Amino acid sequence: ISHLDEDTIELKKASNFNSKELSNYFDKLRKNYKLRREFNNYTIQMNIENKEIEEKLNQIGFKTVTSI
Fold first, then answer.
1. By C-alpha distance, which of 48, 43, 50 is closest to 68?
2. In the predicted model, is pLDDT for residue 66 greater than 80?
């Protein structure tokens, strides 16, 4: 079963919820979502030291580490 199918099943469960239940259920789904795509969930390992690139990556949310 794909992530998309799992998401569909979970969202269909909420079809009869009132607005308060829906809000709470959606918040729970979001907080426990398995696949996180936000930049702050990723660390970029850099094999050269480049402060300019590192700063730009950090500004958009990535974590960076340099290993030389």
1. 48
2. yes
What is d(CA 30, CA 14) in angstroms, rounded to the nearest whole number?
Answer: 13
Query: What is the distance between the alpha carbons of residues 64 and 42, in angstroms, rounded to a whole number?
Result: 9
- State the Cα–Cα distance between residues 64 and 46, nearest whole angstrom: 7
Considering the chain, what is the average pLDDT of its residues? 91
Q: Say if pTM beats, i.e. exceeds, 0.70.
A: no
Point out which residues pair with 44 in neighbouring strands. 64
Q: Tell me the three-class secondary structure of 9-66, residue by residue.
A: HHHHHHHHCCHHHHHHHHHHHHHCCCCCCCHHHCEEEECCCCHHHHHHHHHCCCEEEE
